[in-house]
Write a structure and sequence with these properties.
By secondary structure, the chain is an alpha+beta fold. The chain has three domains: 4-70, Uridine Diphospho-n-acetylenolpyruvylglucosamine Reductase, domain 2, CATH 3.30.43; 75-185, Uridine Diphospho-n-acetylenolpyruvylglucosamine Reductase, domain 3, CATH 3.30.465.10; 233-243 and 272-338, Uridine Diphospho-n-acetylenolpyruvylglucosamine Reductase, domain 1. Helices cover 26% and strands 30% of the residues. The strands form six sheets. The protein has a five-stranded antiparallel beta sheet, with no helix packed on it. A four-stranded mixed beta sheet has the order 1-2-5-3, with helices on one face. A hairpin with a 2-residue loop joins strand 18 (291-294) and strand 19 (297-303). Helix 4 (195-203) packs across helix 5. Bound molecules: uridine-diphosphate-2(N-acetylglucosaminyl) butyric acid. Uridine-diphosphate-2(N-acetylglucosaminyl) butyric acid (EPU) binds next to strand 13, helix 7 and strand 19.
């Protein structure tokens, strides 16, 4: 494995932003990974695991350690009655895996269609869309525990999955995901309750959609609402949605009666931040210099040209301040800042 120096990271992120990595290598197997981590330990520099680069904002000065791009490949299927265990290596493209499983008629990944990035990143931030999250189907995650220098199979319940977070985010730098094993179903139910999906099928007058139709629906909805990463520099939703108390939600509904909220339990309510950014703060489709928000989704920040990380963080800070002024809510990035 070759370790290169001073490799610009903007070519490896979907934001198309980022200064150089001090060192950079590609891990095609476990030996490469061990070598790269050994290198970082010996040089006493940090390492950063790069997947599809679709959920990160790399600083303009770059990364002072070694960036390890995960390119381990391989997918296996093991049948067990109605269950099929799908084990995919960290470097596989996420949506290619979804496509392959839908082609085989396996239920479980369809709502997560077209999410950019790799299999290795999927459990880290517990990817989710249209009422499903990867935690719903993960059986286990095979990792390298860098702290203890050993391989481990973590069960779903060990991974502390929650909305856009997991053990892997809670202890950054400790675990490197090598593969994930999910249990998909040969005969399974479809989750078509999410508003956009429901509206799509009622418009098309389809009462009982097939698995493939659900994937097609999600692909179409995402294509309509979210920017194409081949066309725009972006990392998707920049901020997390907000969970507030019932009392706070009532206060906001009194101020903004058209806002639709979702109950998480009897005490907590999920607030659609995109709605607030759009209707209460006027942030949908804004553009200033090289940066802005997407015309169809206010949560999505865009690099319209040769934006710097600083320009993105300046806009993000303005959004944080405006939301706080208008609603008293504190918001937090979903995108990870790498520096
Ligand atoms: N809305 C607006 N204005 C906008 C955008 C949305 O008023 O500019 C309203 C919508 O009409 C809807 C609500 O806000 O009532 C929520 O919007 P949407 O359904 O598009 O979903 P979201 O909550 O903004 C989340 C995820 C997305 C995921 C979608 C669909 C987060 C941070 N984002 O967005 O994930 O695709 O749900 O399930 O949870 C990502 O993580 O990068 C991402 C794109």
């Amino acid at each position: 494995m070759t370790i290169q120096e001073k490799i610009l990271l903007n070519q490896y992120t979907t934001f198309r932003i980022g200064g150089p990595a001090r060192f950079f290598c590609v891990a095609q197997n476990e030996d490469d990974l061990i070598e790269a981590i050994g290198f970082s330990k010996k040089k006493k520099i940090p390492f950063f695991i790069l997947g599809g680069g679709s959920n990160i904002l790399v600083s303009d000065v770059g990364f002072p350690g070694i960036v390890i791009k995960m390119e381990m490949k391989g997918v296996t299927y093991a049948e067990d009655g109605n269950d099929v265990r799908v084990t995919a290596a960290a470097g596989e493209n996420w949506d290619s895996l979804v496509q392959a499983t839908v082609d085989r008629g396996l239920f479980g990944f369809e709502n997560l269609s077209l999410i950019p990035g790799t299999v290795g990143a999927a459990p880290v931030q517990n990817i989710g869309a249209y009422g499903s999250e990867i935690k719903d189907v993960i059986e286990s995650v095979y990792v390298l525990d860098v702290l203890k220098d050993e391989y481990k199979t973590l069960k779903n319940s060990d991974c502390k999955f929650a909305y856009r977070t997991s053990l892997f985010k809670e202890e950054p730098g400790r675990y490197v995901v090598l593969s994930t094993t999910c249990i998909l179903k040969k005969k399974g139910g479809l989750n078509i309750g999410y508003k956009d999906v429901q509206e799509y099928f009622s418009f098309k007058k389809i009462k009982e959609p097939t698995l493939k139709q659900v994937r097609d629906a999600v692909v179409e909805i995402r294509t309509r609402k979210l920017p194409d990463i081949r066309e725009y520099g972006t990392a998707g939703s920049f901020f997390k949605n907000v969970i507030v108390s019932q009392t706070k939600a009532q206060e906001l509904i009194a101020k903004y009666p058209e806002m639709i909220v979702h109950a998480v339990n009897d005490k907590k309510v999920k607030i659609p931040l995109a709605w607030i950014l759009d209707h209460a703060c006027g942030f949908r489709g804004v553009k200033k210099g090289n940066v802005g928000t997407y015309k169809n989704q206010a949560l999505v920040l865009i690099n319209y040209g040769n934006a710097t990380a600083q320009e993105i963080t300046d806009l993000a800070q303005k959004m944080v301040d405006t939301v706080y002024e208008k609603t008293g809510i504190e918001i937090f990035p979903e995108v990870e800042y790498v520096q």
